[in-house]
Design brief:
CATH superfamily of the largest domain: Glycogen Phosphorylase B
Number of domains: 2
Low-confidence stretches: none
Radius of gyration: 22 Å
Shape: globular
Mean pLDDT: 97
Distance between the termini: 5 Å
Number of helices: 18
CATH topology of the largest domain: Rossmann fold
Number of strands: 18
Largest sheet: 10 strands, mixed
CATH architecture of the largest domain: 3-Layer(aba) Sandwich
Structural class: alpha/beta
Bound molecules: 6-O-phosphono-beta-D-fructofuranose
Strand content: 15-25%
CATH class of the largest domain: Alpha Beta
Strand order of the largest sheet: 5-6-4-1-7-8-9-12-11-10
Amino acid sequence: MWTKEQLQETIKEKMGGYLLVAVSNRQPFSHVMKSGKIICQRQPGGVITALHPVLQATGGTWISVGVSPFDRQAVDSNQKVKLPYENPTYELRRIFLSKDEMDRYYYGYANEGLWPLSHIAYTRPSFAASDWATYQQVNRTFADTILKEVGEQKAFVWVHDFHLTLVGKYLREANRPNLVTSFFWHIPWPNSEAFRICPQKEEILEGLLAYDLLGFQIRHHCDNFLAAVDQELESRIDREKTAVNFQTHETLIRPFPISIDFQAVSQQASSERVVQCTERIRDEYAMRDKKILVGVDRIDYTKGIPEKFRAVDRFLEKYPGYKEKFVLFQLGQVSRIHIQRYKDLNDELNLLVEEINWKHSQGTWVPIIFTRAYFSYDDILALYRIADVCLVSSLHDGMNLVAKEFVAARSDARGVLLLSQFTGAARELADSLLINPYDTETFADAIAQAFSMSLEEQEKRMRKMQAVVEQNNIYRWAGKVLSQLLKFEFQEA
Ligand code: F6P
């Protein structure tokens, strides 16, 4: 099995002399003011869950956007801060953008254009020309920052997510033979019918084909990408190598299903600190004598949160005997709130919770507890530990690491995972109960099935899923990417 140490060994052996530079829009930690003190808070999202342990193992620099005024105060004259705060192993170099740049590059082109374009969630993408101009300009800022960071050193530049499709192209234009570049697309790649509506489709494809290696979560997304290239660009697709030759450059296209640090999550979830959090949370939310359903999601229309609430409503209509016997605890991590669609979703969720709770409440009991409070990573692990059932109901999701974290957190082999069949994770976690979040009827029945599952059955399924996630962990994922990029043979550990 791949471990942190094995990844470190591989890097020493194969990447000697290379600096590792990871690049993403979202930063791993943000500095915020809490009770009169500046503290460093871990950020939500799949990129952080996956990359933070890798950077801890490899060292190097992570370049991302700083967002708070305290982020500015915390950096040195090179805009850097050492992380993690208690035991630094890598550097974070922050880029600061103006409000206008954030509006057009992040909220605008990335999240109102590319995000809905890539997810089948029936939200219409919009592409404003001025957003595209700023998107290009911010991608240039990223590329310039990388070039400054790297100087003349040999470096492996690893760019992440749909915000930064053009960075590789700008790096290539700078003509620096000291760089090898890779890009990982964390979300689904749409089919070519959906993709062709994007007014900047050629520029996006050309941008991506400037990288040396392009990674997607699953083979299906690689195939969709190749179909888009085939349809939109004058290029040569080498099916044998699964590579695209565009102009004079070759890009390898590969699936790398992303993962988590299984051992670390498992150990932390069993720690005394997390046990204390479970006690506190159970008391604070009066959940002691109840069966507990848990949901942990960024508040995003792709995550199927209203669908989850409707399934709970239907579950109570069909199985009223469960009244007062369970609670759905839904943690919603606020994101992209300046976009109207997200404001509407937040309003919709408030109304739905109010309506469903009013309809089914008895005495002090309500079926849904929905909170947007900040939960530390220990608190999130505590939620996984107290869950009888974890509900992941995404309408479309590249991978979904909440599902994998839940599995890793349950060293007691208890608990049931209800997982949307429209996540990348569903392909690996075949021992979950797979649901279709659009089908309220069968979703409600699956909740009943989960509640009545025997402990033996829970244990059997959980152990099988744990074996899968433990084996396909984040270090193996990073090892696979490196082996493709640096062209050495990947060995199972
Ligand atoms: O889930 C896809 C994703 O892009 C993750 O890769 C990333 O962590 C998250 O969404 C970003 O969300 P936000 O816009 O809140 O940073």
